[in-house]
Design a protein that fits this description.
Elements (H helix, E strand, L loop, with lengths): L2 H10 L10 E3 L16 E5 L2 E5 L4 E5 L5 E3 L9 E4 L3 E4 L2 E5 L1 H5 L14 H8 L6 H6 L9 H11 L12 H23 L24 E5 L4 E5 L8
Antiparallel strand pairs: 1-6, 2-3, 3-4, 4-8, 5-7, 6-7, 9-10
Helix pairs in contact: 1-6, 3-6, 5-6
The chain binds a DNA duplex through helix 5.
DNA sequence: TATAATGTTTGAAC
DNA sequence: AGTTCAAACATTAT
């Protein structure tokens, strides 16, 4: 699940802030019993992470590829159940951390935060020698960007995904990071309205070029070997 | 029905 | 000792 989906869940959970946990369950190996009786003080998201903040610890939830969240119990093994309102997490990675650990996640790098700081991101991006496909997926630079957003951003910028980031002209780098934020925002709004993101995607899982209609190259590339879509003719390699 | 995919952490192997 | 890489987790649409 990419950043926009996580932010939406954080918003949906706001209604249980201030409530106390009366029951816990689930197959997480984390010390869930310590949540019983605790008041949920706040819910935050940072990139693809969701933080449930209690007085002396924080539950970090990461939905990975297949994680999900529900307000109703399903007939599936639940990873973490919290009876607050009624909150269930499935197939998620759950980790108990301290509030100081949460502070290490810099909101200025979260493409979904109103504190997002384009200058700071630019500073981290401009001298990076890695392929742009890897830099966009780096959560320490673009928190919240996942493979869908990455492909859309590369597409809008018409940049070959294996371009060395520091070789890309600065104006185009700026376009890339602005697009990362803009498309993430669009993604979030679409999900919030409960619509299909598919309509907004012009590059991810498309097999004809958005610009010239020729056949797209599809390959698993980059450090994390993710499906990437580009047009050999229209996308410039730097 | 088999495959591939909105992802990250861990620890073995080099 | 630093880097690389497979494994593990696990569901669902196509």
């Amino acid at each position: 699940m990419e950043g926009p989906g996580v932010k939406l869940i954080a918003e949906k959970l706001k209604f249980v802030i201030g409530e106390k946990v009366v029951e816990v369950g689930g197959n997480t190996k984390q010390p869930k019993e310590q949540i019983i009786g605790k008041e949920l003080l706040n819910v935050k998201s940072h990139g693809k992470n969701l933080f449930l903040i209690f007085d002396d610890f924080v539950v970090k939830v990461h939905f990975m590829m297949f994680g999900s969240f529900s307000l109703e119990e399903r007939e599936k093994p639940v990873r973490l159940k919290l009876k607050l309102g009624n909150v269930y997490f499935y197939n998620a990675s759950i980790k108990f951390i301290s509030y100081n650990d949460v502070k290490l996640y810099d909101s200025e790098l979260d493409v979904l935060s109103k504190k997002w700081n384009r200058k700071k991101v630019m500073g981290l991006m401009k001298n990076d020698k890695r392929p742009v496909t890897d830099v966009l997926l780096d959560q320490a630079i673009f928190a919240g960007v996942g493979n869908i957003i990455k492909n859309e951003v590369i597409g809008y910028a018409k940049v070959h995904p294996l371009s060395k980031t520091n070789n890309i002209p600065l104006a185009l780098q700026r376009k890339i990071l602005d697009e990362a934020r803009d498309f993430s925002e669009v993604f979030f709004q679409v999900r919030k309205e409960g619509k299909w993101l598919r309509e907004k995607m012009k590059f991810y899982r498309k097999y004809k070029c958005n610009y010239c209609s020729q056949k797209i190259t599809v390959k698993k590339i980059g450090k994390t070997n993710r499906m990437t879509f580009w047009c050999e003719k229209c996308f410039v390699k730097y």
